[in-house]
Amino acid sequence: MNNKHLRETELAHLDDGSGGAHAMEHLRWCALCRSAAADYRWLRREVTATLMAAADVVPVPSPKWRAVQRRLSAGRRREVVGRRVSAIAGAVSAMCLMLSVSLMPGTIVAAGALSPDVAIAPAPITAFLSGGRQASVATPTPAILGEEATSPPTPTVGLPPTPPGPEV
User: Fold this and answer.
1) What is the residue extent of each domain of the chain?
2) What DSSP assignment string belongs to 72-111?
3) From 162's CA, which of 65, 79, 95, 124 has a CA 20 to 30 Å away?
4) Sign of the CA dihedral 99, 105, 106, 109?
5) CA 59, CA 69: separation in Å to the nearest integer?
6) Is the pLDDT confidence value at 152 over 80?
7) CA angle in degrees (0–180, nearest 5) for 107-111-117
8) Residues paired with 139 in a beta bridge
9) What pLDDT shows up at residue 111?
């Protein structure tokens, strides 16, 4: 027989099966430890029964998960409605823009703005040719209304002087 008694934690956990062979052997010979182990068993059964009775009497609140699910589904609904409203607003604004452009009187007047008394006069443009040479080219440009359309003299194409080459 072992003269050393079991610790309180070992006695409390004997019902869990964590006591082991050493603890069972000690309980066979020690009445004090057997009595303490029986007290722990009784206490565990009483606490379990009290908690079970209280669980039947006390109303359990609904889990908060349902509230979370409701908020998530409401957020998804708002997102879908927002997309639909955005698409409808885009389509309506495009239609309004097309209608306003087609009904504007300025577009009709602008199409018929060219009259036969407007003359087109050429204006010089400088073009760069290969080798870095420049050439002036005349292009038609509209004249200012109310002035006589005269074309400026066409400039002559002048090539820049070429540098002297190396003498060999």
Assistant:
1) 8-57, 67-106
2) HHHHHHHHHHHHHHHHHHHHHHHHHHHHHHHH-HHHHHHH
3) 124
4) positive
5) 22
6) no
7) 140
8) 123
9) 46
One DSSP character per residue, the chain reads --SSPPPHHHHHTGGGT-SHHHHHHHHHH-HHHHHHHHHHHHHHHHHHHHHHHHHHHSPPPPPTHHHHHHHHHHHHHHHHHHHHHHHHHHHHHHHHHHHHHHH-HHHHHHHT---TT--EEEEEEEEE-GGG-EEEEEEEEEPPTTS---PPPPPPP-PPPPPPPPP-
Length of the chain: 168
Structure tokens at 129: 């040719």
Q: In the prediction, which pLDDT does 86 show?
A: 93
Rg of the chain (C-alpha set): 52
Q: Report the pLDDT value the prediction gives residue 25, as an integer from 0 to 100.
A: 83
Higher model confidence: residue 49 or residue 10?
49
Please identify which residue in the block is written with the tokens 């292009």. 139
Which of 56-65, 69-78, 115-124, 149-158 shows the lowest mean pLDDT across its residues? 115-124
The answer, yes or no, to whether residue 110 has pLDDT greater than 90, is: no
